[in-house]
Write a structure and sequence with these properties.
Blueprint (H helix, E strand, L loop, with lengths): L1 H9 L6 E2 L9 E4 L3 E4 L9 H5 L2 E5 L8 H17 L2 E5 L10 H7 L19 H7 L1
Parallel strand pairs: 4-5
Antiparallel strand pairs: 1-2, 2-3
Length: about 140
């Protein structure tokens, strides 16, 4: 139940419907063109959806310790995007050079395809900003 709540805080799950045709695992909730939530199994060699969507968005990358499985899944997603020079937007409080996973770190540090946009704003989850968002 904890994962569902975490996703519900970041995505509009109520607007999503099952779209098993989009991924080989057949487990995908989507609001097509807006948001996608895909269940990936460790032994899936590719993620076709991750290659077909115009942009992959990842929030809070690097804030949690990566398990071996999570590191491999993230690497496969970002490596496919990196090779294709496809768009990805990553929000993180962790600098690319401080990412624990070396393969991700090397891709994010490649200035030929990755552009860092610093955000000096306050964290809305800490303090006044959070109250305003929920109001």
């Amino acid at each position: 139940m904890g994962d569902t709540r975490r996703y519900a805080e970041k995505m509009n799950l109520a607007a999503m419907t099952p779209h098993p045709e989009l991924v080989s695992t057949r487990y995908c909730l989507a609001n097509p063109g807006e948001e996608y939530l895909v269940y990936l199994q460790y032994d899936i060699p590719d993620c076709p959806l991750c290659q077909r969507v115009p942009c992959v968005v990842v929030d809070d990358l690097g804030t949690e310790r990566l398990t071996e499985w999570a590191a491999e899944v993230l690497f496969r997603i970002f490596n496919a995007r990196y090779v294709a020079k496809a768009h990805a937007l990553v929000a993180s409080n962790v600098r690319p050079e401080d990412l624990a996973e070396p393969r991700l770190r090397s891709r994010f540090l490649d200035v030929a395809v990755c552009h860092r946009v610093p955000n000096g704003g306050d964290d809305y989850r800490q303090g006044k900003g959070r109250a305003e968002v929920r109001a």
